[in-house]
Amino acid sequence: MNEHALLPLAVLASSLLPGLVIFFLPERAVRLRSVLNLAGATAKLLLVAVMLWGVSRGVSYAVSFPLLPGIAFSLRADSLALLFVTLSAQLWFLTTIYAIGYLENSPNRARFFGFFSLCVTATVGVAMAGNLLTFLLFYELLTLSTYPLVVHRETPVARAAGNRYLAYTIGGGAALLLGTAWLYAEVGTLTFTPRGFLDGSDAPPAVLAAIFFLLVAGVGVKAALVPLHGWLPRAMVAPAPVSALLHAVAVVKAGAFGIIRIVYDVFGVEYAAELGVIDALAAVAAFTIIYGSLRALAQDDLKRRLAFSTVSQVSYIALGVAIVGPLASIGGIVHLVHQGLMKITLFFCAGNYAETLGLHKVSELDGVGRRMPLTTAAFTVAALGMIGLPPMAGFISKWYLGLGALEAGDTWAVVVLAGSSALNAAYFLPILHRAWFRTPAGPWPPPAAGARAETALALLAPPVVTALLVILAGLFAAVPYSPQEWATLVVRREFYAP
Fold first, then answer.
1. What span, in angstroms and rounded, lies between the C-alpha atoms of 359 and 362?
2. 3-class SS at 76?
3. Nearest Cα to 78, choosing from 465, 495, 422, 389?
4. Stated pTM of the model
5. How far apart are CA 234 and CA 378, in angstroms?
6. DSSP code string of 144-186
7. Is-contact 287 420, C-beta < 8 A?
8. Whole-Å CA distances, 36 to 30, 111, 455
9. What is the DSSP string of 89-154?
10. Range of the domain at 463
11. What is the number of structural domains in the chain?
């Protein structure tokens, strides 16, 4: 086995091994646990950087082991996988720092960080899966490792939210398993292939269409497509680092990534269009975009407003996939990264408001920008990016999606995008007005002991860094290795190459 085969395994091990060790550490081993977390996150970043450099130059990183007759456990770090893995590695590092600060005085930290590491391991496995069965295995591991994080606080509300999450995701997993088994029975392979492997198959089109809907429903639960989204707002009872993980790093992103894999590397976008299933996906995505935004308008709880915003924003990815054309594909794929950067910033900031000042509702944020200017500035950058204003990263996503819709003749999609941006403004701008221009209801509590700024440095630095990345991803969208340029590479290499 050469180093090209070892690297995907090493990327998995960089979070898996620290996580397994952390489970057995006593609660008082705070320093050792933090060192293991940060060492694993740093190692993953370095390994991913090596693979990024290699893949950009045509190097192949893949490993496989026999699993079942005719099916292997397969890992492959192609350009699409590296886009998702890079996002996960970067945000895991920052979320680890944030979680260390956020949970400083909380119980059950060993359990939390152990499952936290397993969750990231599963996410990376989902990204690098070389076939649908390997994808399914890591997808289910993601479900099981995330549940303890959702119920971390062990309150009745947290348990109820966790049970709902488990019911939805196990149901989605069952649909994914059924679709996977049915597909293998029909065509005899599950290997992800650029432009898909079903064109020319002898399977009846109606059967393949049914399999498509089973697979998309399976991953659509985690992607929070309506009506499969009900678990996500309830899961906001979890601590802020978990919310950030769910929305920006792992669960929701894994679902959206699964939609990309199924459409492009199983069916092929052109063949999916021939079957007629792509139109149904586009309709569901468009409805979800508008529905999520409308529900966000009605939420006073800040994290629930952000949760419904996620329901809307993640479906931009599905919409980009469903519009047949390279520009829309670039827009949808790059939004996988841009939405992650923007949404993790928003949840970090929401966590800072809650942890530092005890603020949980939009109606409580009057004048908070004066007390926490850096946190609120980071929130502002991410919110404007969600609306789609330049030079933020969100503008790049929506620009390509709009151009792609016009290129494909889908003017209705442009209307959906414009309407969604207007609704984004309707539920984000009032927050910014309250935070910056309203008078506080009373005096703010003083900074915590040892805090030299508006809050603890471990809580403040991550949202400031991610907000800067939101700006940089927009300003330097055309430079090599930027998310937009890498998404262009993905489209060129995997989807539209002859």
1. 8
2. strand
3. 495
4. 0.93
5. 25
6. HHHHHHHTTT--HHHHHHHHHHHHHHHHHHHHHHHHHHHHHHH
7. no
8. 10, 14, 25
9. HHHHHHHHHHHHHHTTT-S-HHHHHHHHHHHHHHHHHHHHBSBHHHHHHHHHHHHHHHHHHHTTT-
10. 334-498
11. 1
SS3 224: coil
Distance of CA 22 to the CA centre of its chain: 25
Distance CA 163, CA 474 (A): 39
Q: Is 265 part of any domain?
A: no
Task: Compute the distance between CA of residue 108 and CA of residue 70 in angstroms, rounded to an integer.
Answer: 43
361, β-bridge pairs? 301
Cβ atoms 74, 62 nearer than 8 A:
yes
Residues 6+ apart with CB under 8 A from 406: 414
| Averages of pLDDT over each 10 residues, the chain, 498 residues | 78 93 88 91 93 87 85 90 92 91 80 90 94 95 91 86 91 95 92 86 91 96 92 84 80 92 92 92 96 95 93 94 91 94 94 90 94 96 96 95 93 95 96 94 68 81 96 94 91 65
Residue 466 lies in a domain: yes
Say how far apart CA 460 and CA 378 lie, in whole Å.
10
Question: How far apart, in whole angstroms, are the C-alpha atoms of residue 210 and residue 100?
Answer: 45
Q: How far is CA 419 from CA 167, 312, 315, 485, in A?
A: 33, 12, 14, 27
Measured CA to CA, the distance from residue 85 to residue 46 in angstroms comes to: 12
DSSP conformation class of 445: P
Instruction: With respect to residue 45, please indicate whether it lies within any of the assigned structural domains.
Output: no
Distances in Å between the alpha carbon of 145 and those of 46, 234, 295, 412? Answer: 24, 18, 29, 39
12 part of a folded domain: no
Distance CA 273, CA 275 (A): 5
* DSSP 8-state code for residue 299: -
Q: What are phi and psi of 76, to 5 degrees?
A: -145, 120
How far is residue 74's CA from residue 58's CA, in Å, rounded to a whole number?
Answer: 19
pLDDT at residue 484 in the model: 94
Q: Whole-angstrom Cα distance, residue 104 to residue 259?
A: 37
Rounded-to-integer distance, Cα 152 and Cα 169, Å: 18
Q: Which two tokens stand for residue 354?
A: 């809650």
